[in-house]
Write a structure and sequence with these properties.
39% of the residues lie in helices and 17% in strands. The chain is of the alpha/beta class. It is globular and about 70 Å long.
Length: 547
């Protein structure tokens, strides 16, 4: 016979689990004791459950395997909610394990007791209370299966403390071999027919296309056909953005140069479309023909009703299209001209050497400092738009941003998980001062783990994204400013190394030295967002509309 908590750990090991991120409580102590004897799984003790959840989700994004995180009941479990929604909307496989009071007898009345399973139901693919030790293998296998299958997302298991202590003779269930079904050949031929008949087709690469094999197949299709492509924010980096057919990233909802390119298309091949992202185009009767290529059929609404759907494994569907299609003399010059205009507009501003630092200059210098396989993990703020538009991504999952839940506080934990998965690659967290402070306590975790990590804080002493929106709506600048700690001293108090940017000239050298250094390096960089409204809301719209 085996103790249930020992069996739980054995099941996690059978799934290939490497880390459990979390903050244990007394209801987890049996599980914690079992975990202490695992030679495969490492406990990553964090300073907040939200940070643990963000780390687990990012581990899942990088590896395709469900990241595992742990919390106790009540407030520990409620602190997982934001991370669960982050993984659920963002398509990141994650398993949350939470504790609970004994369920076979009352221990302390209703103290700290919430219906956590019901709370998790709207933001997970699967949630279940383990009421029997014998059921643990099946429930763990099901939680991993659902977390990892398309569309990936969050799952949850609740392990009550009395169940964790029960004996059982159950054994782990091995993961099954499974392949996604391929798209129907007739649907592929119909898609090819529309593409070959088009005057100006375009590929739109979305969140669901951000998979290794899909990236390779899309690259081969683009190289064979010469069809230009653009990305959503969550599709950024799927194809090397130095490609001559790259049209840009849809960082703004409308009125950008990339939208001027889309207007020229008569056939849009929408690969990996996910309704959680703001759409880069809206359909209308009599407009462009839209071909939906995804693992699931399209969710139809008034602005999205594709005429052709190719449903199945995306990589295989793109391969089938590539093999069947005959390149045509498509006219894409106007689309490429829109991209050229965007690049010219971007490059005209990158030499502005003001301090506080100009966003365009900052993005340019970060791109120069980062190697090809370097990873930037963006928190949520107005700088995310500047990086999505201006930062040229060379490889998949080297620009981690959240355009699904768009939550603040995820940038630092996501960068930490990236540094753990890829210890030989350069990793930089890019955070606004507001987002950084939401999980800044994880600096201690990063230092304790001995991670090599650069944290770039863009400091404007306010919630800059909302100030930008406030200005655009014509409201007075009010209610969004605050004070910050001395970030250099703050970093040093955790055992990290702090730096302050005092001029634009020092930024390139500081970025390079921090990326080359060992340990956690924090850069406090004042940022000048004073032109956000003029450029993003007015100038770009006027220039792109004139194309």
């Amino acid at each position: 016979m085996t103790k249930a908590s020992d069996l739980m750990v054995q099941c996690l090991e059978r799934e290939g689990c490497e880390y459990v991120f979390g903050v244990p409580g007394e209801e987890n102590l049996d599980f914690l004791d079992s975990l202490s004897r695992s030679t495969q799984i490492r406990l990553i003790l964090t300073r907040h459950e939200q940070g643990a959840g963000f780390m687990a989700a990012t581990y899942g994004r990088h590896t395709g395997k469900a990241g595992v995180c742990l919390a106790t009941l009540g407030p520990g479990a409620t602190n997982f909610v934001t991370a669960a929604a982050y993984a659920f909307l963002g398509g990141m496989p994650m398993l949350m394990i939470t504790g609970q009071k004994p369920i076979k007898r009352s221990k302390q009345g209703r103290f700290q007791i919430l219906d956590v399973v019901d709370m998790m139901r709207p933001i997970t693919k699967y949630t279940h209370q383990l009421a029997s030790a014998d059921n643990i293998p099946a429930r763990v296998r099901e939680a991993f299966r659902l977390a990892q299958e398309e569309k990936p997302g969050a799952t949850h298991l609740e392990l009550p403390e009395d169940i964790a202590h029960d004996p059982t003779d159950a054994v782990p269930i091995a993961p099954s071999y499974v392949r996604r079904p391929n798209a129907d050949g007739k649907a592929v031929r119909e898609a090819v027919r529309h593409i070959e008949a088009a005057r100006s087709p375009v590929l739109v690469i979305g969140a669901g296309a951000n998979r290794t094999m899909t990236s390779r197949m899309l690259g081969e299709l683009i190289d064979k056909t010469g069809i230009p492509f653009l990305t959503t924010q969550l599709g950024k980096g799927v194809i090397d953005e130095r490609h001559p057919k790259f049209l840009g990233c849809a960082a703004l909802s409308a009125g950008d140069f990339v939208h001027a390119a889309i207007r020229r298309a008569d056939v849009i091949i929408n690969v990996g479309h996910d309704v959680i992202e703001k759409p880069p185009f809206f359909m209308a009767e009599g407009g462009a023909t839209v071909i939906h290529v995804s693992t699931k059929s399209a969710e139809v609404d008034p602005v999205y009703f594709p005429q052709v759907e190719v449903v199945g494994d995306i990589a295989n569907a793109i391969w089938q299209i590539k093999e069947a299609i005959t390149p045509q003399p498509w006219g894409c010059e106007a689309m490429l001209a829109a991209r050229a205009a965007e690049v010219a507009h971007r490059d005209a501003a990158i030499g502005d050497m003001r301090c506080p630092i100009y966003p365009q200059y900052l993005v340019s210098e970060v791109r120069k400092a980062m190697p090809e396989d370097g990873i930037i993990a963006l928190d949520n703020g107005v700088y995310k738009i500047w990086f999505a538009r201006n930062y040229v991504a060379y490889r998949p999952n080297t620009v981690l941003l959240d355009n699904a839940l768009a939550t603040m506080g995820a940038g630092l934990p996501s960068a930490m998980a990236s540094a753990m998965v890829y210890p030989d690659r350069k990793v930089m967290a890019i955070c606004g001062d507001g987002g950084f402070m939401m999980n800044s306590q994880e600096l201690e975790t990063a230092v304790r783990l001995g991670l090599n990590l650069t944290v770039l804080i863009l400091n404007d002493n306010s919630y800059g994204m909302i100030r930008w929106k406030q200005a655009n709506m014509g409201f007075a600048d009010w209610g969004l400013s605050y004070g910050n700690p001395d970030f250099v001293k703050y970093a040093e108090s955790y055992g990290a190394t702090g730096h302050l940017v005092t001029s634009a000239e020092m930024l390139p050298g500081l970025l390079a030295s921090c990326l080359a250094a060992k340990g956690v390096q924090l850069i406090d960089c004042p940022i000048d967002y004073s032109d956000n409204d003029r450029i993003l809301n007015k100038e770009i719209k006027e220039l792109s509309a004139a194309l």
